[in-house]
């Protein structure tokens, strides 16, 4: 527990003295490190190799090393990886912010491709890694691994971590690429966790078609109920804020309701044994589509930046944490009786990860390009390489799942488990550091950076809210629809497009009047909204044509 | 630990299933209750009796009752009061926001009076309650209480809780009253905690002049070092943000740095065994004076509302928590062998609290009025009554201190301790509910509400930031200084005023050029600051004359 298990703080016999200095020291170190990471990350912003994640990881490693040296390897309290901290406190703000800030237009326009990559792709990757591990691990004589363990390994190493790449990609310059990498990352997170869950509950003894069907059924059930819960909570928050018509001075109330409801959706999902990641992601999308437009201007600025800030802090915290945890001495000792094995294992896993990802990115891109109309941008080969590369990194989700599978409460006594944990840590560190460092050069090689004035900077100097509106609406405004062409592409595209049109009608006629949204907020005289009326009208016009 | 001890969540043998449903359920209940409190508080806003604190308290009581019924009095896990939660997570945002949003001009103009009420007044109240308890408790045959216990009781019941009153007072209509009640509340929080700490470390066996001197010395040491640490951290944050010149798109970084540094100041203070409350309060003041002016416009809006929101949530959480904890069955059982005693004790304590407060409010107000020049507003008798009333409520600080003194980790087996805890809970509930409910009617009786257009609403419709600037500068702008009058008032007032003038010079010449502040931020072309240039110039002018 480390940071959270502050049970002994302030509970000494006499007075409010702090008895558990360890916990207080931990918190102080962490906050100081977070601050330094932010400052260093800012200073290194122009650098073509480093980004904030790598900085945090390196600083975590360094601090872990210093702590190990200071305590002579005895004290590893600050180092124990806690799944709670990860799943209850760090992941929800990151995923919620992802949903809240996503360019909904781009996301939903590429919805099919994203689902294809995120769900089907992850399954393909899972199958390949599982089969590969079953075939290759046995030569290494790692220890007794069962079918369930191999399946779990497949799920663990199917969980990608695209944060590094997203930090480098520019949302305005390469909207298609960004939305694909981003969307796939979220769906992949959810898929791999749901997959892992389903595997753990699988009765492997009687593996037949019925079990497989059951598995698929459970997978779909989790997917849809989780999404539904997120949408429902988001709509409820929109309805409450619209009905109550909080006055202008109630920004605190509005922001509180939004924050609390977002977290409630995640915790409800946990309570109902669903996928919190999916729930909170869709809650974020619904909140940015309805709730966000029902609040005052200052609430909008505040929520946008607060959610982004919390997510930012959580991300850095995470990388720091992984870096520190990597040096946890206990598991290294246990695995060190055969030091070569974890390294060989990691190499095999890294190879499998690369093959497994290539096995779905290129075929699925081809499929996705087939279904696209000629006017719409296709995924070029260079872009396919970037998508492939973006998902090679393994991160905190892999570590959390590995700890869940191979340890109990962060500790293990079994050698094979210790080897699996160390291998996971090596894979995560290597992929994040080496692949992560190569991302910027690779990108600037494949996509030459544009010169000339930065368009987004010109846009946003007009108003504080303008960039926000732009980001909420999506940056591309192709209005005209060419006449339908009766060919394969059209047949494949038509359903998505008519669904989108139907949704627009439904949204305008039934949803917005009830739940609010842009152009449907009751006008409060003298409120700050009045100032931005031209923006709003503009918004309504473009929206009617675009959304 | 309840909410924080999530150790067992997600750590079941197989998969990511949630095993410790209790913790998840607790979090869900708490978040749902927080949302309902906000909504109900909003709906009842026009009501002249109720406010958000009482709503939260009542809802906490109701929920505690329901949980007791559902679990047949067995499960009290959600009810255990945790000092950690209080001192590490809930108190810092409340106090920091207090410092951040305080009208510095009003606060420093009335600095002497505030210190008089907050520090000297609390000490007077402490002495009277201690002596009264020593005299009156012995007749009740409560049990064996030592001198140290009586001193602790004095400190516990000297800690006021003026949140209720502040929710009702209007900062714009009665600035003097607001700043006095508010400032006293903060200084009182710090004084009582420091006092309690000092008592616990006191060697009562050898109580003589030297020990008393030592006590006073320690008290002063804590006071000044804590303040210094807060100021230093605040200045550091201002310096970092000014030096780094974060670009326009780095709002997340700026907000992160401000949040993290604020919390760091509190945790550092805990680490160094100082008063975190004082530290974080002064850190808030310095941040709003320097750091806040160095960041971008959207960062300003965001930080202002984020800090207010976090404080708002923490406050409601606190009252919910106290309400739930009140029904903790264990201590009631232990104390119920003599059910009349806690009630008699509570009545005595309430009487002592009222007397103890009257004993310093009226004399000190007289003193403070003496030292005021004729032009400056004096504290009228009606205002003195309100100040007296505002500090009668006892709140979470009292409960936290009582738990610290009379239990170990929230549990006690000794009857006299159980009686003291139940008495504290009764005093807190009674004073918050009954006195709290009477506050609004009392205020509207003593200060008839103004009619006509709300000036602050007119002001703030001009710009999002205007009300903020106003609130940061203080609402009163009396510029001219009349010629000095050589009388008692002048002699008493002169030091404060010349100190203020010296400070202004020092601030303009040395502090602002280094740490930034209004009018000293480097101008970034094309940044949102450009838009608010007229505001800024106005700010600089009024500031040069006023600050």
TrEMBL record, chains A, B:
Regions crossing the membrane: 25-44, 56-74, 86-102, 114-138, 150-169, 176-199, 219-241, 262-287, 307-324, 344-366, 386-404, 416-438
InterPro entries according to UniProt: Cation/H_exchanger_CPA1, Cation/H_exchanger_TM, NaH_exchanger
Any GO BP annotation: regulation of intracellular pH
A GO cellular component entry from the record: plasma membrane
Protein's membrane topology: Multi-pass membrane protein
Residue span, Cation/H+ exchanger transmembrane domain: 30-443
Gene3D superfamilies listed in its UniProt record: 6.10.140.1330
Primary location: membrane
Subcellular location: Membrane
Pfam families in UniProt: Na_H_Exchanger (PF00999)
Protein origin, superkingdom: Eukaryota
The keyword Transmembrane appears for this protein: yes
Catalytic activity, as annotated: Na(+)(in) + H(+)(out) = Na(+)(out) + H(+)(in); K(+)(in) + H(+)(out) = K(+)(out) + H(+)(in)
A Gene Ontology molecular function term of the record: sodium:proton antiporter activity
Keywords assigned by UniProt, alphabetized: Ion transport, Membrane, Potassium, Potassium transport, Sodium, Sodium transport, Transmembrane, Transmembrane helix, Transport
Name listed for the protein in its UniProt record: Cation/H+ exchanger transmembrane domain-containing protein
